[in-house]
Amino acid sequence: MKISEEEKIEFLKELVSIYSPSGEEEKVAKFLVESFESFGVEAYIDGVGNVIAGKRGDGKRILLAGHIDTVKGYIPVRIEDNYLWGRGSVDAKGPLATFFFAFLESRANLIFAGLVDEERYSLGAKNLNVPRPDFIIIGEPSGFDSVTIGYKGSLTMKFVEKVEKFHGSLSSKGAAELLIEKWLELSRDFGEGFNKPSGRILRLEAYEREFDFYGEMIVNIRTPLNYEPAIKGEILDFVPAYEVSPRSPLVRAFVRAIRKNGIKPRLKKKSGTADMNILAPKFGVDAVAYGPGDSRLDHTPYERLNLEEYLKAIEVLKKALEELKSI
């Protein structure tokens, strides 16, 4: 099946035009199902809202998993200077559209999964129920010339302090001061790069009760592999870091595919967290992330996707799938 570049761009524009922040993905899910059906492919929406389609082809079974939700913040959809502006154009409807057309044009053995809630609690990935794949490709912006082989984990913790009231003239520490000390202890090893933790305070509240000073702090730490925090609070959520070996057949397939398009390939490790962290351990197979777009534009008011890069990414992904067929 061969689809024109104009059709691919129009599909992406329609996809991005459907505003779908986490929890409001129903319209975009229906659009994807209808789009698959228009090409003669059966698709359905599962119990949590994921869009699933399958295709029997040659070689190993490969899961193409992107997410259909975005963060909030509407950006008017428009094309200017060969860039498509709009919320989700980069994170991650551009990669999702790349998967859609690679699925249609490839003869590989594929499962397509458009997942809900990635920008919030990853309920789509956590509840995904499909046949076990041999490899997983996650739809996230890596740039068409790069493949992402690692993501940091995410640890969310809550700390609570309660101190019996004392007079304000005394130098004793209240609940707020104790919580700040905990944060300073946690953050002492923070740094840049994949192998260092980083984080921020999500919420810090301190107030007086009848006989106590009371405080509560919620923090999120982006964790490297095998991370142990200096102090532990109540764990609200934890997704471990993930990294695939550069020698994985999956990584090598992408490296060869990128080179065949006349480009020097790059391997990336990211400080964020993605559904790759969940799905790779869930199925026990190698995973990478791939897709067009500059991830520095994620979640910003300037989110836009270069359309030439988008079209090139479809061709790279098709070649990678072809490479995987021979493994």
TrEMBL record:
The active site is at 69, 118 (proton acceptor). It catalyses: [amino-group carrier protein]-C-terminal-gamma-(L-ornithyl)-L-glutamate + H2O = [amino-group carrier protein]-C-terminal-L-glutamate + L-ornithine; [amino-group carrier protein]-C-terminal-gamma-(L-lysyl)-L-glutamate + H2O = [amino-group carrier protein]-C-terminal-L-glutamate + L-lysine. GO terms for cellular component: cytoplasm. Zn(2+) 2 binds at residues 91, 119, 299. Its cofactor is Zn(2+); Co(2+); a divalent metal cation. GO terms for molecular function: cobalt ion binding; hydrolase activity, acting on carbon-nitrogen (but not peptide) bonds, in linear amides; zinc ion binding. PROSITE patterns: ARGE_DAPE_CPG2_1. Catalyzes the release of L-lysine from [LysW]-gamma-L-lysine and the release of L-ornithine from [LysW]-L-ornithine. It comes from Thermococcus paralvinellae. This is Putative [LysW]-lysine/[LysW]-ornithine hydrolase. It is an enzyme of class 3 (hydrolase). Belongs to the peptidase M20A family. LysK subfamily. Pathway: Amino-acid biosynthesis; L-lysine biosynthesis via AAA pathway; L-lysine from L-alpha-aminoadipate (Thermus route): step 5/5; Amino-acid biosynthesis; L-arginine biosynthesis. Binds 2 Zn(2+) or Co(2+) ions per subunit. Binds 2 divalent metal cations per subunit. The keyword Signal does not apply. It is found in: Cytoplasm. SUPFAM superfamilies: Zn-dependent exopeptidases. Pfam families: Peptidase_M20 (PF01546). InterPro entries: ArgE/DapE_CS, LysK, Peptidase_M20, Peptidase_M20A, Peptidase_M42. Zn(2+) 1 binds at residues 67, 91, 140.
